[in-house]
Specification:
single chain, alpha/beta, TIM Barrel, eight-stranded parallel β-barrel, 47% helix, globular
């Protein structure tokens, strides 16, 4: 992507939240990263989100994150839009990574600053000051699980900043979704940040979805999304319900370790997690294998045990 207009045009649809496959020694397994990216793009995913929360960016140095951005941009080129997470507690790092992400043709994804006590006006000014670092614009990452939850009123205000082109929305409570669909969608792109409850928000009017579980069950997530876009909400709902057992394990054992274990169960390389996270236990891994094997989808069952 060369500018914010192109970013606005292309950042929509189904995005794979790509996990970062670490080797046992902690290094990034770039061969696995290449294979995992190719898998979802070949299936028809619209784009990729690299180095996000489930990409374990807090456990990576700025240099490692920059290297990952360069690697993925080199692999993907202009084939699909890239969302590159540039969040950090140090604003200087945010600026550097945001500038790099934009130079590489990606859309930088930025959280509110990690400060314990901050006014909404400060958050507004933070985003206003970061925008000039990117020629492709900025995606707001509203991530309640890792920082400040941005209010709908503040999001509406941020959407008025020239250069804010998209929002990855983690607060999917009904009232918030209803308000954002009515006041923000159309002005900027809005992607649902979770695939746990995504059918409802897509029907409501969001522009797309970013999905971590699509690393492990890309066929189910893709078909569900396609059914929704085709107007077949009943079939989409049935598909979504079909993998509830895996969602339940994700809530019990955490992310991205559960998704990585599910990928490993399919003989795909999810790899390890970095501290402070922990890999699932052997017993938990066996439970994940059993759940994956019982998913009522031929494409998934047929892939078990094959690379």
């Amino acid at each position: 992507m060369k500018d914010k207009d192109e970013a606005f045009a292309r950042v929509k649809g189904l995005f794979n939240i790509t996990v970062t496959p670490f080797k046992r020694d902690g290094s990034v397994d770039k061969t696995a990263m290449r294979e995992n990216i190719a898998r979802v793009l070949d299936l028809g995913y619209d784009g990729l989100l690299i180095g996000g929360t489930y990409g374990e960016f807090p456990a990576m140095s700025p240099e490692e994150r920059a290297d990952l951005f360069r690697f993925v941009a080199g692999e993907v080129g202009n084939r699909a839009p890239l969302l590159l997470c540039t969040a950090h507690s140090d604003v200087r790092v945010v600026r550097d990574l945001t500038h790099l992400a934009s130079e590489l043709g990606g859309l930088p994804m930025v959280t509110a600053p990690y400060v314990s006590e901050v006014e909404e006006g400060h958050i507004h000014d933070f985003f206003r000051d970061i925008v000039p670092e990117s020629q492709t614009g900025i995606m707001i990452y509203n991530a309640p699980g890792i920082g400040i939850t941005l209010s709908p009123a503040l999001i509406e205000r941020l959407a008025g900043i020239d250069g804010i082109v998209a929002l990855k929305q983690g607060d999917l409570s009904p009232g918030t979704v209803d308000r954002l669909v009515s006041s923000v969608v159309g002005r900027i792109r809005v992607l649902a940040a979770s695939d746990l409850v995504f059918p409802g928000v897509i029907v409501a009017g969001f522009d797309g979805l970013s999905s971590t579980n699509s690393c492990a069950i890309p066929e189910i997530i893709l078909e569900t999304y396609q059914r929704l876009n085709a107007g077949d909400a009943l079939a989409a709902g049935a598909l979504h319900r079909s993998w509830y057992p895996l969602r339940a394990l994700c809530r019990r054992y955490g992310q991205p370790q559960t998704t990585k274990a599910a990928m490993n169960a399919r003989a795909w390389t999810g790899g390890h997690v970095r501290r402070p996270l922990r890999n699932v236990t052997e017993e938990q891994a066996r439970e994940i294998v059993d759940v994956i094997a019982k998913l009522p989808t031929v494409a998934v069952a047929a892939a078990i045990g094959h690379r």
